[in-house]
Design brief:
Elements lengths: L3 E2 L2 H6 L1 H4 L2 E6 L4 E13 L6 E2 L3 E2 L1 H4 L13 H10 L4 E4 L2 E2 L8 H8 L10 E7 L4 H13 L3 E7 L3 E10 L4 H11 L10 E5 L12 H10 L3 E3 L6 H9 L1 E7 L15 E7 L7 H14 L2 E10 L6 H6 L2 H6 L5 E3 L2 H6 L1
Parallel strand pairs: 1-5, 6-10, 7-8, 8-9, 11-12, 11-13, 13-14, 14-15
Antiparallel strand pairs: 2-3, 3-4, 3-10, 15-16
Length: 342
């Protein structure tokens, strides 16, 4: 016996399997979402449900392009499951939204959050990772309050769980996530003055601009507003992006907010020169979002310097070798003269 993957066609054809799935639809956007409603095993990292019959649904629940889920089909994992299956903590009657264990804003906003809009319950027990920031929790609470839903959180640790009579929604494509978030969350104002903004990464653990004071001096002279995301709640951050005509920022998760920018907005991403194969998806992330949203995306390459320290979460969830060698986890030095010419 081993873990078996079932296709979407199997769900449609087999009545017994089909009964384990609900179909939700946002009619105004014409977007559908399959929701697995059953007893299942699932971890708090991949959020990849495995039914009691040891069936999985890769087409619905595979979302991490740089972290494939093939290991779930290995003999080693199967032995782990058999050995520990009776020890898993049980969670009942909950909706598994999930969140990044490393509290990555891009992942939380783009991959996890849009799925909450397919829940039609008036009262929700919502499963998220314990590491999700208070700021993002308040954001979810505000959304549910606007939808007239009563919400309570169930906190997950780094572990496997047995979810009994629970619901887990499929993951949504980037294009559809973009449509959903703009429909329900975007705070754009028609007559708002257009902004030119620079997003600072001060007080972060890596990709700080070492000579940011010189860069800010230059940008202020050209009418830019300097935004430190730490000083604003998420709705306020979204408002800055939705009313911007130019956004300049070091590469990082706060650039996920460009999905709220109006078509034609200029996005200038300050990024290191990537050299490792595994950095490819990270290097293209905001170019892809810009293309989906009709934005004018440019990259200014910066020099890199080793960061002095990494956060506890980074050390816990990112491979040590990657932290040490990847340009993505270094600090940045902007060449001011080149930037001024640009």
């Amino acid at each position: 016996m081993s873990i078996v993957d079932r296709k979407k066609n199997d769900i449609l054809k087999e009545e017994s399997l089909n009964k384990s799935f609900l179909s939700a639809k946002l009619n105004e956007l014409n977007i559908e979402c399959k929701i697995f409603k059953d007893d299942f095993y699932c971890d708090s990292f991949n959020y990849f449900p495995i039914s009691k019959k040891l069936e999985t649904f890769k087409e619905l629940f595979s979302w991490q392009t740089d972290n494939p889920i093939e290991h779930f089909y290995s003999e080693q994992f199967f032995e782990y499951l058999k050995k520990n299956i009776e020890k898993f903590k049980i969670i009942k009657n909950s909706f598994i939204l999930g969140s990044s264990p490393g509290d990555n804003y891009f992942t939380n906003l783009i991959y996890f959050l849009p799925r909450i809009f397919f829940n039609n319950q008036d009262e929700i027990r919502l499963c998220i990772h314990r590491n999700l920031s208070n700021k993002f929790r308040k954001f979810i609470l505000e959304i549910c309050n606007n939808l007239n839903k009563k919400l309570s959180f169930v906190y997950l640790d780094d572990d496997f769980y047995f979810f009994k009579d629970c619901l887990i929604p499929q993951f949504i494509s980037l294009e559809n996530s973009n449509k959903i978030l703009n429909h329900f969350v975007n705070t754009s104002e028609k007559n708002q003055k257009k902004l030119k903004i620079y997003i600072s990464r001060q007080n972060t653990d890596y990709r700080n601009v070492v000579n940011e004071d010189d860069l800010i001096k230059l940008l202020k002279s050209k009418g830019y507003r300097i935004i430190d995301p730490n000083a604003f709640n998420i709705i306020e951050q979204i408002s800055f992006f939705s009313n911007a005509e130019v956004v300049i920022s070091p590469t990082g998760s706060n650039l996920a907010n460009i999905i709220f920018c109006k078509p034609g907005t200029k996005i200038v991403e300050i990024a290191p020169a990537f050299k490792e194969k595994y950095e490819f998806n990270l290097s293209k992330r905001y170019q892809i979002l810009s293309k989906i949203n009709g934005l004018e995306h440019s990259i200014i390459n910066a020099d890199t310097v080793k960061t002095k320290k990494h956060s506890v979460l980074a050390k816990k969830y990112i491979n040590k070798k990657v932290l040490e060698e990847s340009s993505y986890y270094s600090d940045l030095i902007v060449r001011i003269n080149n930037f001024n010419n640009f």
